[in-house]
Design goal:
Radius of gyration of chain A: 18 Å
Number of strands of chain A: 10
Largest sheet of chain A: 6 strands, mixed
Radius of gyration of chain B: 26 Å
CATH class of the largest domain in chain B: Mainly Alpha
Oligomer: heterodimer
Strand content of chain B: under 5%
Largest interface: A-B, 27 and 22 residues
Order of helices and strands of chain B: HHHHHHHHHHH
CATH superfamily of the largest domain in chain B: MetI-like
Helix content of chain A: 25-40%
Order of helices and strands of chain A: EEEHEEHEHHHEHEHEEHH
Number of strands of chain B: 0
Number of helices of chain A: 9
Largest sheet of chain B: none
Shape of chain A: globular
Strand order of the largest sheet of chain A: 6-7-8-3-9-10
CATH architecture of the largest domain in chain B: Orthogonal Bundle
Chain lengths: 257, 273
């Protein structure tokens, strides 16, 4: 841990800048997440929220700034990124399950390869996590045999099997049929209730409102406003936030922007 | 007016009738062709010089098995060698280090453009160019090296395309679970890439089987004859084409079960997609 600052801070981002070519997608992001906190990041598409999330486990490398997770600056060229990622679970919009492995093997392959866990032990951990997401009856199923909601729950179990301190969710329900969204959100809610630190990029305003400790609104590559869900979603101060929420919460009534 | 009547006559044929008529024409053409062949071909001569029953038995009993085995051995060794070298070349082509990419590209372009015959000739001349140089396990070693070099150039491109066909999210998921780049490649990307590559790799294996007929260039003793060389030698001594036909059937004996096996593998991996 870095001395001085709050020991409860798990993620600390300072002066983050990211360009794709000449496109300045992240413009001076500063933000921290405490241990056990659930942060929902909302904002229009192209606002940089997914890029910010992907920077936190360095799937995208920023050109400028610091990303400190568990006291370690990931941007430092001497940082062992593979070791750091063991503590950061990631759930993708497209699930990205390994199609040639069963649900169980999806959850055991990383603990066995990366942590050198014995098969029996890894399978035990995997079963525990598949039970947590309510899929103990699907351990032997290949991903192709599972519904989108089930696949995403396996993906959550897979990330949990590494025993992470932090879970990142990149629009986890955006690729799902509407009737399957609920099962994934309820698993995420249970995870939040168990004390997991979570950063969730989402368009699910109801989830953000009920589960998040803090909501961050991003637009144009910057954080426009953040605060409690009631403040940001219930009584937004910024015009851009109000505009966005109006379009999301009342998609038919809003005039084309 | 005339347009209208033409339309009407065409319309009179229902789609079903039309299909029946087309089918009938196809069968008539087939039957006419068969009848022509039956009348105009000199069947007794064809039978004697292509399918002489005594010669078939003689050929099968005198060295066919060993020739079949040799063809399989030349091809299998070359395929394994080509697959390993091809994977290495594919990884070099995808490397971040530019000189590796250049080297692999030069190798692939050079040996893909070269007839396998020329490579075999080069290998048969090696002992002349470097006196005292001998390939191990000759002639197998020579055949494996020559065929493997040609095969690896083709396979490298297939393998590279296979690796690139694995969705980027797969490697991202593996890396975000803490796997190193090498682990993600070995455990996640390559197994999926090889599934994608089964059909094109089979094609390359079949091409290698046929190219193995070029081993005669390096000079073989009778016990090392492959199917083609064996069939040709037998055909020459007997002044009859039958042994070559037998040798040709020998190739089918290898490639047909292979095709069936691969089709089965494809349908079973389809479930894992």
């Amino acid at each position: 841990m870095t001395g001085g600052a709050n020991d409860d801070v798990l993620v600390s981002i300072e002066g983050l800048h990211k360009w794709f070519g000449s496109n300045h997608v992240l413009q001076d992001i500063n933000f921290t997440v405490d241990r056990g906190e659930v942060v929902c990041v909302i904002g229009p598409s192209g606002s940089g929220k997914s890029t910010l999330l992907r920077c936190i486990n360095l799937l995208e490398r920023p050109q400028h700034g610091a990303i400190v997770v568990r006291g370690e600056n990931l941007v430092d060229p001497d940082c062992d990124i593979d070791a750091a990622r063991r503590h950061i679970g990631m759930v993708f919009q497209q699930f990205n399950l390994f199609p040639h492995h069963t649900a169980l093997d999806n959850c055991t392959v990383a603990p066995m390869t990366v942590l050198g866990m014995k098969r029996v032990r890894a399978q035990q951990v995997a079963r525990d996590n598949l039970e947590r997401v309510g899929l103990l009856d699907k351990v032997d199923a290949l991903p192709a045999k599972l519904s989108g909601g089930q696949q995403q729950r396996v993906a959550i179990a897979r990330a949990l099997s590494m025993g992470p301190d932090l879970m990142l969710f990149d629009e986890p329900t955006s690729a799902l049929d509407p009737e399957l969204v609920g099962e994934v959100l309820s698993v995420m809610r249970k995870l939040a209730d168990s004390g997991m630190t979570m950063i969730v990029v989402t368009h699910e305003m109801a989830f953000a409102r009920e589960v998040a400790d803090r909501v961050v609104f991003m637009d144009g590559g910057g954080i426009i406003e953040q605060g409690s869900p009631d403040a940001v979603i219930g009584a937004p101060r910024e015009e851009r936030t109000r505009n966005f929420l109006r379009r999301v919460l009342n998609p038919i009534g809003a005039s084309p922007a | 007016m005339s347009d209208g009547s033409a339309l009407r006559t065409r319309r009179r044929l229902s789609p079903r009738r039309r299909a029946q008529r087309i089918r009938a024409v196809q069968y008539v053409v087939l039957v006419v062709g068969a009848v022509c062949a039956a009348f105009f071909a000199d069947w007794p001569t064809i039978g004697r010089s292509f399918f002489d029953p005594h010669l078939i038995v003689y050929t099968v009993l005198h060295g066919f098995a060993s020739a079949l085995w040799n063809t399989v051995a030349y091809t299998a060794g070359a395929f394994v060698l080509g697959l390993m070298a091809g994977t290495l070349l594919a990884l070099m082509r995808l490397s971040d280090v530019a000189p590796y990419r250049w080297l692999a590209t030069i190798y692939i372009e050079f040996f893909r453009g070269l007839p396998a015959l020329v490579v075999f000739m080069a290998f048969s001349l090696l002992p002349l160019a470097f006196s005292g140089l001998t390939m191990p396990w000759s002639p197998y070693g020579t055949a494996w090296a020559a065929l493997g070099i040609v095969g690896s150039a083709y396979m490298a491109e297939t393998i590279r395309a296979g690796i690139q066909a694995v969705p980027r999210g797969q490697v991202e998921a593996a890396r975000s679970l803490g796997m190193s780049a090498a682990q993600a490649m070995r455990k996640i990307a390559l197994p999926q890439a090889f599934r994608i590559m089964i059909p094109p790799l089979t094609n390359e294996l079949i091409m290698l089987i046929k190219d193995s007929s070029l081993v005669f260039i390096v000079g073989l003793s009778a016990s090392n004859f492959d199917l083609t060389k064996f069939g040709r030698a037998m055909a020459n001594t007997n002044v009859n084409i039958t042994p070559l036909v037998v040798a040709g059937l020998g190739y089918l004996l290898i490639t047909l079960p292979l095709s069936i096996l691969v089709r089965r593998m494809e349908s079973s991996t389809e479930k894992g997609r």
